[in-house]
Amino acid sequence: xxxxxxxSPSNPPKFSFFDLGFRPFFxxxxxxxxxxxxIWLLVYSMGFQMPQSPISxxxxxxxxxxxxYSIAVIAGFLLTATKNWTGIQTLNGKPLFALAxxxxxxxxxxxxxxxxxxxxxxxxFTLWLSQAIVTPIVKTKQWSQLAIVVKLLLLLVTNxxxxxxxxxxxxxxxxxxxxxxxxxxIGLILMMARRVVPFxxxxxxxxTVTLKNSRYLDLSSLALFLIFxxxxxxxxSPMFSAYSAILLFIVNAIRLVNWHTPxxxxxxxxxxxxxxxxxxxVGFLLFGLSYFLGIxxxxxxxxxxxAGIGAITLGMMSRVGLGHSGRDVSNxxxxxxxxxxxxxxxxxxxVFLPLIDSSHYVLWIEISQGLWILAFLTFFITYLPLxxxxxEPD
Length: 394
Fold this sequence. Notes:
CATH class: Mainly Alpha
Shape: globular
Order of helices and strands: HHHHHHHHHHHHH
Radius of gyration: 20 Å
Structural class: mainly alpha
Helix content: over 70%
CATH architecture: Up-down Bundle
C-alpha cells in the first residue's frame, strides 16, 4: 500500500499556494476552525444571534465541524495523497482556487441562512472533489483506493440528507446528516489510520521497529463499525448499539497496543496521532457506557469529534504540511508540540471534566472552546509562511 511520499519537488515555484490541495485547504481549515468556534463561543456563552435560518445554531455548529472544517482537511489530504498514489497531478492552479472558492461560498451561505445556496455549493464541492480524486485512480486502475472515494460519496449523501431536513422535506434529515457525517468521517479516519500510522511510526522513531496490522482486527473493526452506524442511525436497538460500541473500543484498543513503541513519545507528530486514535476508542467506550451508566452521549460524541477528529486532523495537517513543503518532518517547529498539547488539554476538559463535575458544565465547554481556538490559531500562525510558498533552497 502506497502512502504519502514526503519528498519535495525539485526547483519548486517560489509562490506555491495553489500548486497542491494541502496548502489552501489546510490553512483554510485551520482558519475556519478558529473562526467557527469563536462564533459558536459567542452564541453559546454571550447570546450572539446568528442570522435567521431554518436550522438552529447548534445544528449549524455540528454541521460546520463536519462539512466545513473536517471535509476541508480531507480535501487537502486526498488531493495530495492521490497525486502521490497515482503519479497524476490533481487539481492545481485556477481549478484548485475555484474549488476553494466553492467551499468558502458554502460556508458563507449557510451562516447567512441561505439554505438553497449553501446546499448547491456544499454538494457541488464534494462532488467536484470526488471527481478530482476518482479520475486519476481510475486512470491508473488503483481500484483498492476506491474505498476512500466511496466514503467521500457517502459524505455527499449524508450532507444531502442534512439539507433535505433543513428545507423541511425530510423529517429526520438534519439528524441523519449530522450523525451520518460524523460517523463517515470517523470511518475514513480509521481506514486511513490503519494505512499510514504504522508506516509513520516505523519511519519516524529512532529505534528500528516493525509494526503489523492484523487482518482479523481490520475485518472485525469494519464489520462492527458498520453494525454500530446502522444501529445508531436507525435507532434500532440501544442495547446492541452499546455492545457494538464497546466491542469497537476493544478491537481498536488492541490495534493501538500493537502499534505502540516507546519512541513515539519523543516525536510530537507521532504521539499526537496515537493519542487522537485513543480518544476515538474512548468515544466508542463512552457510547457503550451511556446505555449502561446514563452518561450523556454528547460527551461520547465530543470524544470522537473534538478529541479524535480534532487531534488527528491537526496531526495530519502538521505532518503533511511539513513534508510536502520540503521541510523535515522529524524536526517540526516547537509550536507544533505546543498546539497539540493545548488541543489535548482542551479534549480532556471537554470530555472528562463534565463526567467528574457536571455542575460546572458550561464552564468546561467555554474553556475547551478557548483551548481549541488557541491550538488552531497557533497552527495557523506557524504554518502560514510555510504553506504560502515553497522552501527556499539551502
